[in-house]
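Lab notebook, bench 4. The sequencing result for the construct came back, and we need a structural model before the next group meeting so we can plan mutations. Quick request posted to the team channel:

Model the 3D structure of this chain.
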Amino acid sequence: MKKRCEWVNLKNELYVSYHDKEWGVPEHNDIKLFEMLVLDGAQAGLSWETVLNKRDNYRKAFDGFDPKKVAEYSDDKEKELLQNAGIIRNKLKIKSAIRNAKVFLEIQNEFGSFGKYLWGFVGFKTIKNKFNSISELPAKTELSDKISIDLKKRGMNFVGSTIIYAYIQAAGLVNDHIKTCFRYEEC
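Done. Here's the predicted structure in token form:
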């Protein structure tokens, strides 16, 4: 049996697949980075497993996470999302996704892509941590503080340092697979 990070719920095939194929893989695609940003914001106060189980519903509800479309959402679309039982129906989180889409587009315009902006914080290279157990993983770091502060300054919300640390772990800016996990060397 493959050795995985301790946080993976082995009873949930979707979760196992997420860990084995996505989490910690360096991501540069702006649509995928926007999706991850929205979903990590939606996770605030909830488990990642809850959000992951709703991810396909989010993709449908949020037009494939196209930031141009999301940035144009009307009040009617916002009300429609609040009625969608397939996603987390939190008014502040939905408003945040729309607001963050607008800022995301501004960052794309300024840097050429959101990926260039984000990866610039790590010199375009994954930081490879060497943790032996999930108990060693930080909730936030100086790096996540720095990114969070910059995103907030630009007008985003639901981008606190803890959310951003989860985001940069997922997007592969930091490799936080534990050293004994089979994905550690792969990522």
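The longest strand covers residues 127-128.
Will bring this to the meeting.
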